[in-house]
Records
---
Amino acid sequence: MSASDREAIWTFVGKKDDIIRCKKTTTVVQGRDVLVIYREGVLYAIDSFCYHSGGPLQLGDIEDVNGKQCIVCPWHKYKITLAEGEGLYQSIDPRDPRSKAIWCSKGVKQRTHSVQERDGDVFVTLSDLSSKVESDYYQSKKYKQAMRATMKR
Ligand code: FES
């Protein structure tokens, strides 16, 4: 089913003022753990667990990387763009070791979702789940149960 075939289900995730005050909040949308972030006037929604190894992105800092707002995973410091879910990395030209490192994209690794505000209330609808994104692995029931048990310790 494509995104255009399915009817969007918008789930209330909180009051905009509360999300602005907290800067980040985690929620569950149709069984999926989603992180909602407010940064410089924009709301974002992404899968809560990092595509690399399931790190808890709600504990990550937000940074501007090469003009893009990114969350920095607290486990191994991978940088993920909030708007697109791209994994970013730095690279130099291997033929010129004196070249300056530049930011490059690995492509979309972290699933992002649509978020909108209506009259002070914030809603999220999941993106089209028909194609795979690497962060999908960490949304499995088995993985999430193990993660919650770890975070309670
Ligand atoms: S788990 Fe996020 S960078 Fe490794």
---
Amino acid sequence: MRCFAFLAAVMTTAYATPLAAQLGSRPADEWALTLESGRRMEALEIEEVVAQIGLRPGQLVADVGAGTGIFSVPLARAVSPGGRVLSVEVDRGFLPLIGAKARLAGLQNITPVLGQFGDPRLPRADVDFAFVHDVLHHIDQRQSYIRALASYIKPGGSIVVVDYDMNVPGVPHSNQPEMLISPDQVAGWMRAAGLEMTREVGMFPDKFFVIYTKRP
Ligand SMILES: C[S@@+](CC[C@H](N)C(=O)[O-])C[C@H]1O[C@@H](n2cnc3c(N)ncnc32)[C@H](O)[C@@H]1O
């Protein structure tokens, strides 16, 4: 099973409550080492996950809770030419790391965005895809966050969620019920925000990968 006891332990220590999870208790530079550890990077299957979304050149993507931007770069390539990625973070320490990653990759279509805990504060409301990878369980008010996020999605656009499934024994945060979410909960939050499931990707034994689309 692709879940990491060490990552769970580190995150358990760092994040005692969902609110603390959002505030973060470690500097971004230090947190980045965990997010980009070799074992995590290998298990994420980044290229395959991005390929499964089915992005097209010219589209606008929001990478919500982008961290160091490890997904922002392949997302930005997938929407090139003509597309853009808005890489949203609440931890401002990540923003320069995302910018540096974009420069290193030679990409000019990644815009770091400082979001708020309850609202991604995107500069545009015509987003084709919001990508929420390993983030939703860190957010405190999930239903209202999904509603806020949905307000930036254009009709026919989608929200993609990849996260640990609380129904699978041993997933990270197993001992922190407040940091566990299920596909059924996500379905309820999406329904309340006016989105319906259009695809479910079965890539991971311990994570769900779902795509919800806003009614046109
Ligand atoms: C486990 S990391 C995942 C980072 C990245 N998506 C990845 O998979 O590598 C969770 C990230 O979500 C961010 N985050 C937490 N709450 C957030 C919120 N309300 N809005 C935006 N980002 C948030 C954290 O700062 C952290 O960088």
